[in-house]
TrEMBL record:
Keywords: Membrane, Transmembrane, Transmembrane helix. This is DUF3278 domain-containing protein. It comes from the Bacteria. The chain crosses the membrane at residues 20-44, 50-69, 90-109, 121-140.
Length: 151
């Protein structure tokens, strides 16, 4: 069945079904969190922007977390050699991101003028890189374990 959301879903039928479950679970958690925030708004003064940002973050973190922990991203990783090769690719991708981000930052934004600005940009860059690497690594590890069990 085709829908306007089909472009977000993978072509693999199993992955598509799991993703639909994740989106549905995320939507239910989003709905419940909005009800909780509506009740909390009677006791605390919550900004509209804060509530909307929190709701979007809850949905995105839940769906992304479930996808990472499901271990279904790397379907072809079942041997130790393939696992190590894909881990190398993840490391290279992370290092490439760091280099490209830093180069583009220096070209378009400019060279930071103070130590504080350097710390801010490097802190952001390191944080994003670590989160990206860990999410890919966890997904790879889970996929490898799951695929190894299926063999």
């Amino acid at each position: 069945m085709k829908s306007w959301i089909s472009f977000l879903l993978p072509d693999d039928e199993y992955k598509e079904k799991k993703m639909l479950y994740f989106f549905t679970e995320g939507a239910i958690i989003l709905f419940l969190s909005l009800i909780v925030m509506m009740i909390c708004n009677k006791f605390f003064n919550l900004d509209t922007e804060t509530v909307l940002l929190a709701a979007i973050a809850i949905f995105l973190f839940y769906v992304t977390g479930r996808y990472i922990l499901a271990g279904m991203e790397y379907t072809d990783i079942a041997t130790k050699h393939a696992y190590k090769k894909e881990l190398r690719v993840i490391c290279i991708r992370t290092i490439g991101f760091v280099i490209i981000f830093m180069a583009l930052y220096l070209i378009f934004i400019n060279i930071p003028s103070s130590l504080n600005n350097w710390v801010e940009i490097l802190g952001l860059l390191i944080s994003v890189s670590v989160v990206s690497f860990l999410s890919s690594y966890i997904s790879l590890k889970r996929s490898y374990k799951k695929n190894k069990e299926l063999l």
